[in-house]
Design brief:
Elements lengths: L5 E4 L4 H16 L3 E5 L3 H5 L7 E4 L7 H6 L3 H10 L5 E5 L3 H8 L7 E4 L10 H11 L17 H12 L5 E5 L20 H13 L5 E5 L5 H10 L8 E3 L6 H10 L2 E5 L2 H8 L4 E5 L4 H4 L7 E5 L11 H5 L11 H7 L7
Parallel strand pairs: 1-2, 1-4, 2-3, 4-5, 6-7, 6-9, 7-8, 9-10, 10-11
Amino acid sequence: MSAAPRLVVFFARVGDLVMLTPFLRACAVRGPVELLARPWARPLLGRQPWLADIHTLAQPNAAGWKDWLAGGPRRQLGAQLVARSYREVLTFADRPVVRRWIDGWRGAVPVRELTLTGFASGTHTSDQFLAAGRAAGLVDDGDEPCPRLDVDADALATAQATVTGLGRRVVAIQAGSSLTNRFFRRRPNLKGLPPATWAAFAGGLLDQGRADAVVLLGTAAERGEAQAIIASADPRHRPRLHDRTGAVPLGQLAAFLAACSGCASVDTGPAHIAAAVGCPLLTVFGPSDPALYAPRGTGPCALAVGSASCQFCLGTPAFKRCRDNICLRPVTAEVLLRAMPDPAPR
């Protein structure tokens, strides 16, 4: 009889899920592991061989009355998960409503909260997850610390056919993030660069022969940013700038980036995906600290880090008040071109 699985509960964004993968892989060596996360976990990690199953909940932090009005999805899912008789449930510090929900499972299934405190300043997020696992006896010192995503062969072949149709060397640009075009917040993309900077960078890659084509990626909500980049570009470069915002869903993104010769991105989830599939990567950092969040992968991962006296403000009141990301002003197209790893033909 196979061992009962462990359930890891982690309601986080795409980049955080990628940084959690070394911990999940290490746990899977010691028995089957299932994941409870937000819906984007399924297209992102659904094909990873080290995950036995993925369960999703769209609104884990909804107030009790909101969950009741929605038909009780949190309550119903909790009952289903408890019935699966897990070996144990592993959680990281989460919001109070999630903690109370999982605390209600105690007695029916063992629950352990892993501690993400007490680390030296600047400890990378992936290292924090692994250290918490070591303290819990779930991870060994020799377990691989680098995020890595396996890409399905058929998905990769499909992506390669698309990418090679654009050129021999194709570089992706992820200019937007979850902070882009938030209707109700009316804030600039504090992690982003001006369209003219991205346009000059893309043109430099093309003129230097380091790229045959540049693909602009992102969600459909980021299409305006991609169009602004193309509009800012030199007219002779525009035919080789391709807007694919909204056209590469999350479930296909890992394969698409694996087929590209390189990627330049702001600090956001797709940057971590690119690194985890070995795509040569340049990540731009302004308000967020690369010591904590820099993408790691099997290929070259370079950084372009801005500078300001208020850096690094992500997660502080200063970030919420900021309307002018001065920390990224020093990051020019020339800085990006010098820092970009040489794209390799695929």
